[in-house]
Amino acid sequence: MLAAAIERFSASARNVEPGPWLDPRSRIAYALMMLWGAASVAILTLTNFTAEDWPRWMMFLSLCWAALCGALARRYGLDRVAAFLEAVAIPPIIGALGCVLVISAASISGRFADDKLIVIDTALGFDWLALFHFYQAHPWLVPISDQAYTTFGPQLVLVPLLIFLARRELLWRYITAYILTLGATILVFPLAPAVGPYVYFHIPFGLLPGIGEGSDWQWHFGEWIAQLQSGEIRDITKVSAGLIQMPSFHAACGVLFIWATNRIRYVRWPALLLNLAMILSTFVRGAHYFSDVLAGCMLALLAIWVASKFVPTDMASYSATESTRSRGDP
Predict the structure, then answer these.
(1) What is the DSSP letter of 95?
(2) Alpha carbons 220 and 196: distance in angstroms, whole number
(3) Which residues contact 146 (CB under 8 A, 6 or more apart)?
(4) At residue 330, does pLDDT exceed 70?
(5) Contacts of 71 (CB under 8 A, 6+ apart)
(6) Which of 1, 152, 238, 264 could form a disulfide bond with 166, CB atoms 3.0-4.6 angstroms apart?
(7) Which pLDDT score is estimated for 12?
(8) pTM of the model
(9) Residue-level pLDDT at 322
C-alpha cells in the first residue's frame, strides 16, 4: 500500500511544473534562520561548548526534516501542506538555535545589572517587593499565575497553527516578528544580565509556597551565568535558556500572541485575557523586574512594526513591491 501511494505521488509530481521552493514572503525569516544556524555551528565548532543531549538533537533534526519536506511540497504545488509543515517546524527550529545563542551570549555578558534595573523600576513607580508581599497575603494568586505563565510553551506551538488554520496569509509576518523579537532579546540580554529579584532581595526558596516547586530556577540565574563565564558549564543543554532577565521574552511573546490572534474570530478575546495574565505572571512567577517586562513588550512592538512593513500578507502586494524595486522607483 505504501509503495502504491508513493508511486501515485511520484506520478502526480511528474505532471506538475516545479515552482519555487520557498514562499517569497519568507525570505527575511529564512535568511535570519540560516544566519543563526551558521552562528550556532561556529559556536559549537570553534569553542569548547557542547550539546550532548542526543534526544534533543534528534528532535531538532526531525524539525529540520519537516521544514525541508515543506519546501519540497511547495516545489510541487502543495502550498497548504508546505505552510502547515513550516508553521509546525520553523518556530521551534528558531527557538532551538536561539537557545545556543542565548547561552553563548551569557558566557560573555557584563556585570549584573540588578541595581540599575531597580532604579528604573523605582523611577517608574514600581515596587517588586510590594507585589511579592501582596502575593504572600493572597496565596491563591500563585496557582493562577503558574497556570498563566506555563501557557508560554503550548502557545509557541498553537499560535502558528491557529494562524495557519484561520489567517494563513499572516503566517510569515508572524514568524518574522517572532524571529526579530528573539534576536533583539539575545542582543540586549548580555548588556544587562541579572541575578533576579529573589536572589537580590535575599528571599529564600519556599517563603512563598508554590513558587519554584519542582524546579527552583528563579534562584539560579546569576549562578548559571557565572558558571558559563568561568567555563564551569560547557554543555549548553545543562542550562535553561530562560536565564534571560532583561528583556523578558515571556512578556514579548505575550504581545506577539495577542497581535497574532487579534484577527482570529472566537480566539481574539480569550487569547487577549490569557496573555495579559501571562505578562502579569512574569513579575513574581517568572522573577522579572518591571523594566524587564516593559523592555520585552517594546521589543515585540518594534518587531511587529518591522515585520508588518517588510512582509506583505498577500502575494499581489509582494509582486507589486518587487516590481517597484526592480524599476528602481522610490
Answers:
(1) H
(2) 9
(3) 210, 281, 285
(4) no
(5) 21, 22, 82
(6) 264
(7) 59
(8) 0.88
(9) 46
